Amino acid sequence: MSIDLTGLSEINGPLVALDGVTGAGFDEMVRLRLSDGSIRSGRVVQIEGERCIIQVFEGTNDLGLSGVHVSMTGHPMELALSPELPGRIFDGAGRPIDGLGPLFSEKKADINGLPLNPVARVYPQDYIHTGISSIDCLMTLIRGQKLPIFSGPGMQHNKLAVQIVRQARLAKADGTRFGIVFAAIGVKNDVADYFRRSFEEAGVMDRTTMFLNLSNDPIIERILTPRCALTAAEYLAFELGMHILVIMTDVTAYCEALREFSSSKGEIPGRKGYPGYLYSDLASLYERAGIVKGASGSVTQIPILTMPNDDITHPVPDLTGYITEGQIVLDRSLDATGVYPPVAVLPSLSRLMKDGIGEGYTRADHASVSNQLFAAYAHVQDTRSLASVIGAEDLSLVDQQYLKFGTAFERHFITQRFDESRTMDETLDLGWTLLSLLPKSELDRVDNEMLEAHYHPDEAQSLLDQRGEEL
Fold first, then answer.
1. Rounded to the nearest 10 degrees, how much is the dihedral formed by the CA atoms of 14, 271, 247, 115?
2. Which end of the chain is more exposed for a tag (fewer CB within 10 A), N or C?
3. Are 351 and 372 members of one domain?
4. Is 446:376 a contact under the CB 8 Å cutoff?
5. What ranges in 168-218 are assigned the alpha helix state H?
6. Is residue 306 part of a domain?
7. Which residue, of 76, 97, 132, is where some domain finishes?
């Protein structure tokens, strides 16, 4: 139902109040026509009896209480959808900014999505290949999963995001199309240009749909960006049958916009000033990943968020960890030593990888290699702590071998060139080669049959000799 009113009751920052409104709905879109004929958009964010609070997308500068004509559209914000979405670039509110003209849509959809019946979900199993050894081997990304990346300010998460977009592909070529939906939230102009230029140079723009929200855009647009991106992803996946990987960076910027918006409405703040509904709000985004019965496509999510002060207990990563199925944590100390990608192995995990690896999915020895690498690297950390107390020269021979394994593991397995894409076989073979640096008796997470087939100390020494290192 369309409602037309003239005049505003109150203006407070990006919010305006309207009295005497009946029949309006929460999240309903609003058009404000100013006295000079210009049009601004907004949406209903709060209803108190017949008083309606509207958030104006373009801000309230030059807005007066009189001379403003307000029209209620009767529907929430909708995104135009079309098979032409891949290859297009939109702003945070879903408007084309690539100079290719408007999108010829075949339908529109509510950006808030529709509730997904849990019974209709299919358990994720097949994996998505990223070409990055530390992810593919140790924290495998499963199709339909939500696997966030926890980074820190100033670290190389943007570079890692670009590499994943360039290299990601379906592990099983079943004829289904694969696509990327990339949402940049609250980024600077140079970062947005970097993303666009990198995708164009890599030749992946034809399968990528971009939503770019800049740091100088209104905060309401920052709140809309991930919802627009996920609406596009759901359309491509569940109606066009594509397998879609959604990458969103930076979710922390989204949460800060939500905090600012909540404060402007006068809501009681929760932990660190974030609204008390932050958990449910994030869940409304993350839970839009998955596989649905009867649909040939899927939606997989990699949200990237920066932890303020590298604090993993901060509300944003803390709540994200409760909702998602694992995390990939980037380590500042590794980043400072030149390791790229600086993946911290021990605090990272993928809770769904156990059902998406092994024979028929990756390789029969995948789980064994992963478990043994985790166990060996954990022992390396204990050995390094001991060496810092008593000195490396006083360690046992086995512990000294662990130290050398740890160094080689970081230099050759975790470290990878930005333009290097390793196959799963190359990754697992490299893992075996590095494990062969250790005595066979230390490899207690691998059965004897696999150990006999893959344990080759001479290959491990050859790897180090090629790089001028000593065992």
1. -80
2. N
3. no
4. no
5. 189-202
6. yes
7. 76
| 27 Cβ contact partners less than 8 Å away, ≥ 6 residues apart | 43, 44, 45, 76, 77, 112
**Rounded Cα–Cα distance for residues 44 and 73 (Å):** 11
Percent pLDDT > 70 in the chain is 97
* Total tally of structural domains belonging to the chain: 3
The Cα 390–Cα 202 span in angstroms is 50
Rounded-to-integer distance, Cα 47 and Cα 50, Å: 7
Paired tokens of 432: 């075996």
* 204 falls within a domain: yes
Residue 360 in domain: no
What residues pair up with 182 in beta bridges, in sequence order? Answer: 210, 247
* 303 and 206 in a common domain: yes
pLDDT at 431 (0 to 100): 94
Query: What is the enclosing helix (H) or strand (E) of 213?
Result: strand 208-214
Question: For position 2, what pLDDT does the model report?
Answer: 62
Tell me the two tokens of residue 424: 């799963």
Query: What is the distance between the alpha carbons of residues 252 and 269, in angstroms, rounded to a whole number?
Result: 17
Domain interval for residue 152 = 79-355
Which of the listed residues 355, 389, 411 is the one where a domain comes to its end? 355
Q: Indicate if the pLDDT at residue 1 is higher than 60.
A: no
Which amino acid does the sequence have at 379?
H
Phi, psi of 20 (to 5 degrees): 75, 30
Written as six digits, the tokens of 402 are 């662990």
The sign of the CA dihedral 130, 135, 459, 432 is negative
CB 139 within 8 A of CB 133: no
**Concatenated DSSP letters of 78-114:** EEEE-TT-TT-EEETTS-B-SSS-----SEEEETT--
pTM: 0.93
Per-residue pLDDT tens for 12-68? 878 888 888 888 888 888 998 888 888 888 889 888 888 888 888 877 887 888 888
Residue 471 has pLDDT above 70, yes or no: no
Long-range contacts of 308-314 (CB under 8 A, 24+ apart): 308/153, 308/252, 310/152, 312/150, 312/347, 314/272
DSSP string for 428-446: HHHHHHHHTTS-GGG-TTS
